[in-house]
Specification:
By secondary structure, this protein is mainly alpha-helical. The protein has one domain. It has a two-stranded antiparallel sheet. A hairpin with a 2-residue loop joins strand 1 and strand 2. The longest helix is centred in the C-terminal third of the chain and has 24 residues. It is globular, with a radius of gyration of 15 Å. 13% of the residues are buried. The mean pLDDT is 94.
């Protein structure tokens, strides 16, 4: 089973649900996608170097094998979720103050 892929997809679904349920709605903000693009550029540079030089390896049993450059697709799923959830919680706790 492709666990890393499964958890990556689950992380995206949970992120979307939490964004909507909390009312933060960061995914509706156009500037959010600009910053995601900037993060993507740095991810391609840093993660691309680490995976391209075999510094960080993935077990093929747990990933689909689809890569953007040398980076597995699943890393992009988790990266998007981590950044987005951080912003969602930041905005949520800011509202509660």
């Amino acid at each position: 089973m492709k666990e890393y892929t499964l958890f990556g997809v689950i992380s995206i679904i949970v992120t979307i649900i939490l964004d909507r349920v909390t009312g933060v709605n960061i995914l509706k903000n156009k500037i959010f996608y600009f910053f995601i693009f900037i993060i993507l550029i740095f991810k391609l540079l840093v993660n691309g170097y680490l995976t391209g030089k075999d510094i960080f390896l993935y077990n093929p049993e747990f990933i689909l094998g689809l890569r953007i450059g040398s980076i597995p697709l699943e890393d992009f799923l988790f990266g998007f979720s981590m950044v987005t959830l951080t912003i969602v919680f930041w905005e949520l706790f800011k509202k509660r103050r």
